[in-house]
Amino acid sequence: MSKRVALCSAALVLVCAAGVANVRAEHRGRTLVVTMTNDPIENRINVYDADTHTLLQRLSTHGKGGVGGNARGVKQFDGELVAAVNNGSNTVAVFRRDGDILKFDEVVSTSSAPVSVDFGNDHMYVAGATTVDSFALHRNRVEWRDGTGGLELVGGGSPPGGSTAQVGVINDKQLLVTLKTDPDPGTVDLVSLDEGRVTGAAPTAVSAPQGTLTPFGFAVYRDGTAVITLAHSSQDGLFRNGAFTSVVNAGQAADCWMTRVGKYVFTANTGSKTISRLIGTGSHVFVDSQVAGAIATGGAPADIDADAGVLGVIDHGAGQSHLSLFSYNEFGELTAQGTPITVGVADANGVAILPPGDRDRN
Fold first, then answer.
1. What's the CA angle centered on 282, arms 221 and 237, to 5 degrees?
2. Does residue 104 contact residue 92 with C-beta atoms inside 8 Å?
């Protein structure tokens, strides 16, 4: 083989390899954004393309909505599953990703009216009005309910209606559930797990610090440290090893909802209609930017999520719900992406960002 032929052959290989890489990149698919209409009669989810803001689907959850005062009413897992609470039906709807769309998979029954969902430890966890349930997860499919435990306030007793805010995994042994009980400071329940399932043992109920109000949304670092909003006193707390170790003023009014991207934690501030950026360490929490972003619609934020370079916030105002999308960079800096989406309902609840699917896995 001549040197010229060898060089041409090598160039052809490089061109073909680049073409394959481009095809694979194109096949990664869309980043999807999901919110829930929360209709008390016929609940649905709306599915949007994060890039174009196009409404791709309206899908029934086969149940009744009506949840409020909560975080993570919609939750995604691994870009493949989406769960949405049917608060009025005591069920959770589960959807599976199929390429660039979602397909309804099943509904599972809960032991009390569902409020918040999280995934981890090969399980789906659902916090309800008075209980928390675990469901076995096998090959990204939600299976049977394998555990249930009661929620408990500091000083004893079940939480009154409307108290439960959010459930979240902190490690393979425990969940956190936040309970708001104004004018009392509020409670954080530590729920015990055994091989991922809720054991049913009474939770350890921890009071929010004196002088604070309303533990609400939270985000968890990989080491199990959680940053928790103390919404009605406009503060943020660091929670580690079963106790609050630090509290700071948020500098914005009614910081309620929270999501994490790497070392950065973002809060949606209902009173100020802004987004803040925080950083948590092993011992302290710091406000890195009081106003990292603003809600252009003028509505009050109602939940927040981030993944795959996209941050989404649901807001309510003037009888309408909106979905605002931002991009974020490695420094946690936010840039608004296009015009906010009008959802078309008054009380949309929850938001989940699904990273692009890898069709080659199928």
1. 75
2. no
pLDDT in tens, 81-135: 999 999 999 999 999 999 999 999 999 999 999 999 999 999 999 999 999 999 9
* Pair of tokens at residue 72: 């993570």
Token output for 234: 């406009």
Q: Are 258 and 229 in contact (CB under 8 A)?
A: yes
Name the phi and psi angles at 19, rounded to 5: -65, -40
Beta bridge partners of 87: none
Q: Using the 8-state DSSP alphabet, how is residue 196 labeled? A: T
Q: What is the per-residue DSSP string for 291-343?
A: EEEE-TT-PEEEEEEEETTEEEEEEEETTEEEEEEEEE-TT--EEE-SSPEE-
Q: How many CB atoms lie within 10 A of CB 248?
A: 16
Residue 17 forms beta bridges with which residues? Answer: none
Residue at token pair 């329940």: 189
Element holding 34 (H helix, E strand): strand 32-36
Six-digit token string for 317: 């105002």
Q: What is the pLDDT of residues 214-260, one digit of tens each?
A: 999 999 999 999 999 999 999 999 999 999 999 999 999 999 999 99
Neighbours of 309 (CB within 10 A): 16
Give the residue carrying structure tokens 């909560």. 70
Helix (H) or strand (E) holding 17: helix 3-26
Closest CA relative to residue 93, chosen from 111, 75, 69, 120 = 75
Contact (Cβ atoms closer than 8 angstroms) between residue 351 and residue 35: yes
Give me the amino acid identity at 41: I
Buried b (16+ CB within 10 A) or exposed e, 134-163: bbbbeeeebeebebbbbbbbbeeeebeeeb
DSSP state of 161: T
Picking from 70, 282, 76, 278, the residue whose alpha carbon sits closest to that of residue 177 is 70
* Cα–Cα dist 62/89, whole Å: 9
